[in-house]
Amino acid sequence: EDFLNLIFKAMMKDSLNSSHPVSSAVQSSEQIEEMFDALSYIKGASLLLMLKHYLTKEVFQAGIEVYLHNHNYGTAQSDDLWDSMNEITNGTLDVKKMMKTWILHKGFPLVTAVRKGKTVSLQQEKFLYCVEPENWTSDASYLWHIPLTYITSRCNFTHCTNAYLLDQKSGT
């Protein structure tokens, strides 16, 4: 419950146009300090949980083990983690490409789903809680690679989870 409260507080901050990406280039030590705030840590943790759920616990853990082995006693960049995940998925999913859409964009997407019979149409757009005119910038080009999971009437929660990656503005 405490973690959910933290996530919702971070999402509230991230839904403002004055938010910042989890990862960005910095020019000064002040900018480094600004980057390491609650939003970065909570959103980062949420993104790792999202990735673990999408890849499965076993695949995610194997990717973490490869990452730790490859970078023990050394330095690393965020791409190194995504490269380790790509190594484990054997190219079946470009984890780096997917995760960069999350860590390099500020904010998060709103996904609208409309069901007509057996067809579900999906559309994504950036979610803004309120527009702050003094900080407003157009984010129309923002596109996230959103991992979605779903079940059908032929499945139960433990045996048949389907996955879909929404990597366009809309999908079916």
Please describe what this structure looks like.
It is built from 6 helices and 5 strands. By secondary structure, the protein is of the alpha+beta class. The chain folds into 2 domains: 3-104, Orthogonal Bundle (Neutral Protease, domain 2), CATH 1.10.390; 108-171, Immunoglobulin-like. The protein starts with a helix and ends with a strand. Residues 5-102 form the Peptidase M1 membrane alanine aminopeptidase domain. Keywords: Aminopeptidase, Hydrolase, Protease. One of its GO terms (biological process) is regulation of blood pressure. It comes from Pachyramphus minor.
Distinctive features:
2 domains; zinc ion binding; alpha+beta; three-stranded antiparallel sheet; 172 residues; protease; metalloaminopeptidase activity; two-stranded antiparallel ribbon; Immunoglobulin-like; aminopeptidase
